[in-house]
Every structure is written in C-alpha cells, then in structure tokens.
C-alpha cells in the first residue's frame, strides 16, 4: 500500500506555489531551505516525477505539479476546517470574494447569516464583475475567491465545480420578431460568457442583431426585457413573471448548460477563505 500523503509536506508544496520561490517559502514556514527541498523531494518520490521547473528567479509547476496542486487543495482545506472545529480555534481574516452581479445578492442571503454565526472573525469584501474580469483579478492577486460561470470543463483548472445553471433566451410578452428582423439585445459588457455565446449563435444562424441596452446591472437588462424592448439571455431560474422563454422554433437555439465554479489563486487557501468556500459549496444554489 502506498505511503499516505503528509499534510505538512503538502502545506510546504502549496506555500512554494503561492510564493513562487523555495527561499520565500522557507522563510514563511521558518524552515531551512534544505528542509524545504527535502520535503519536496519526498513528495516527488511519492507522486512519481518532478513537480517544479526551477531557475534563479522563480519556480513553475510541471504538468504533474499542476495536477498535484489541484488534487490536494481540497484535502488541505478539509483538514484545516476539521482541525479548527475540533480544537475550537476561531477562524479570522479578510476574504475578497468576486462574484457576478447576477448572483451577489442571492449568495449573500445564502451564506452570510451562517458565516457570521459560525465565523464572526471573518470579514467579507465582495467585488462584482463578469467571469472574464474575475479571472483577471484572481491572476492579479486582487481576489481570494471567485464564483465563475462558464461552459462545462473536464478539468479543474478553472476551479471546483459545485453547481450548474441553464441559460435561456427571454423576451417580454409583447415583443414579436420576424425571421429577418434584427434582434434587439440587452447585453452585459465585454467578457460576459452569455454575451459572447448569444452573439456567436446569432451570427452562425445568419441573424442580424443590434444592442438596445448594455449594462453591468442585471436589473437594467431585465427592465428592457420586461418592457418588451429587448431580448436577453438569463438563467432560467432568474426569469420574472413578465418574461417568456424563446424557442428554437422562433429562431433562438437551445443554449448549453453552464457550470458554477469556485476558483482561487494557486496555492493553499487561507483558513478564512477555505471556510467561506465550504459554506458556498454547501448552501448556495441557483
């Protein structure tokens, strides 16, 4: 039977990934560089290959290293959450959460009461943007955690999948469109996956379109639809009573299911970030 993975060794590995250097990791962990290197050699022996490519400035993950990083993130977070619960140690810290404006209010209603009840020492800062913006902010170190929406993926490179949503074409009850009419669209800004999906499908069908409203605020797009002035793409669960779903028979093709994913920068999540991620995965549903 293979030897079990050592939590302490995994923490060292994740710290190196997060800081980008063996030396920086050794300083943070209060260990000698040789001890850190020894732990990584041990992990490489267990996993069967090199985990890092090194140069004088920084380290980068090998394909095996990326796999180990993704596969062990949940293990570390679960370990820390269980240990904190058993020892009664309070979790404190600030978490910068990125979320699409469509989901921000519902997410807070779902998780904030429990977060404040179980972890009053966690301070939550919420930033809103589309998934493209959130990915960029993650890469710039401006977010600790982001709720992303996108087409299904077979890997975990874009975070941990925890749910799905069904986008649909919607219009107001009074909007009637002929097959050759330009489609009036209510759209989010550049970088929104629904915007790109809808425009691409219309172009493929040879249908003309024009923007009536472009806004980051979902309420503005919903108002344009409810007034019968525009067509939009929204989650089926977000449809309001005045809206009707447009069908393929009307020239609007069925849209693919999208996934909800929780993503964070490379490396180990902080205890506060891990606690919030656990609550979102457990309590937030579309």
Automatic annotation (TrEMBL):
One of its GO terms (molecular function) is DNA binding. Residues 5-62 form the HTH lysR-type domain. InterPro entries: LTTR (IPR050176), LysR_HTH_N (IPR000847), LysR_subst-bd (IPR005119), WH-like_DNA-bd_sf (IPR036388), WH_DNA-bd_sf (IPR036390). Coiled coil: none annotated. It comes from the Bacteria. SUPFAM superfamilies: Periplasmic binding protein-like II, Winged helix' DNA-binding domain. Keywords: DNA-binding, Transcription, Transcription regulation. Belongs to the LysR transcriptional regulatory family. This is DNA-binding transcriptional regulator, LysR family. It comes from Pseudomonas oryzihabitans. The lineage of its organism: Bacteria, Pseudomonadati, Pseudomonadota, Gammaproteobacteria, Pseudomonadales.
């Amino acid at each position: 039977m293979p030897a079990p993975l050592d939590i302490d060794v995994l923490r060292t590995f994740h710290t190196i990934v997060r800081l980008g250097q063996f030396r920086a990791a050794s300083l943070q962990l209060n260990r000698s560089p040789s001890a850190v290197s020894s732990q990584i050699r041990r992990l490489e022996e267990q996993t069967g290959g090199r985990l890092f490519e090194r140069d004088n400035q920084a380290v980068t993950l090998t394909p095996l290293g990326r796999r180990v990083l993704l596969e062990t993130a949940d293990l570390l977070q679960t370990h820390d959450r269980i240990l904190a619960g058993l020892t009664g140690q309070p979790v404190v810290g600030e978490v910068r959460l990125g979320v699409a404006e469509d989901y921000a209010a519902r997410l807070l209603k779902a998780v904030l009461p429990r977060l404040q009840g179980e972890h009053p020492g966690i301070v939550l800062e919420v930033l809103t943007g589309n998934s493209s913006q959130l990915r960029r902010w993650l890469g710039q170190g401006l977010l600790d955690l982001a709720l992303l929406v996108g087409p299904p993926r077979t890997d975990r490179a874009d975070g941990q999948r925890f749910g799905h949503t069904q986008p649909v074409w919607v219009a107001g009850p009074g909007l009637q469109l002929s097959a050759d009419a330009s489609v009036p669209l209510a759209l989010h800004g550049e970088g929104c996956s629904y915007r790109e999906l809808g425009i691409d499908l219309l172009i493929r069908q040879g249908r003309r379109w024009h923007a009536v409203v472009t806004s980051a605020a979902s309420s503005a797009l919903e108002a344009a639809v409810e007034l019968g002035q525009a067509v939009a793409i929204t989650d089926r669960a977000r449809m309001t009573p005045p809206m009707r779903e447009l069908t393929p028979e009307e020239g609007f093709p069925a849209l693919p299911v999208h996934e909800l994913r929780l993503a964070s920068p490379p490396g180990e999540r902080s205890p506060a970030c891990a606690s919030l991620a656990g609550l979102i995965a457990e309590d937030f549903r579309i």
